[in-house]
Protein: DUF1697 domain-containing protein
Organism: Streptomyces camponoticapitis
Amino acid sequence: MTTTRYGALLRGINVGGSRKVPMAALRDVLNGLGHSDVVTYLQSGNAVFTDTTGADESTFAAALGDAIHDRFGFAVDCLVRDAAYLKAVADACPFPAATLQAKQLHVTYLSGSADPGRFAAIDQESYRPEEFRIGDRALYLYVPDGLGRSKLGAALSRPGLYQGMVATSRNWNTVTKLVELTHD
């Protein structure tokens, strides 16, 4: 029996007082789906679990989204990625992560391929020193003054850019913590 650790990334929960999903309840939902060793991280929709069924990530994400809807009455976009992928994303960071503050570096995890054509209309030169790079189902964003003031971050958040795809961002502290939690 093969066991695999996964990270679940929920989009847009516990923000601004709406779409509340308490972390204890999220752990209950994941346990109820048959997962074990469930751990949550922060209040922003990060969970780690172990599975032995061998199902794929999209099946897990759909089941989690359905279970959250059943329990809380609203839809939540979910991504599930295995430990190897989470580590590969961190290892492939094109920016010098070790020398940056966590608020300066973010990863947007995507449910599909990060087609460069989606981002072609964004003139990166006009946003310098901010910049982004495309990875494997991920977008890396460097914002020296933090995401809250980032004009490039705002451009990358515009409606329609990720149409047909789930996209959810995490700062570098969360990226590395998910790697740590899935590799225990």
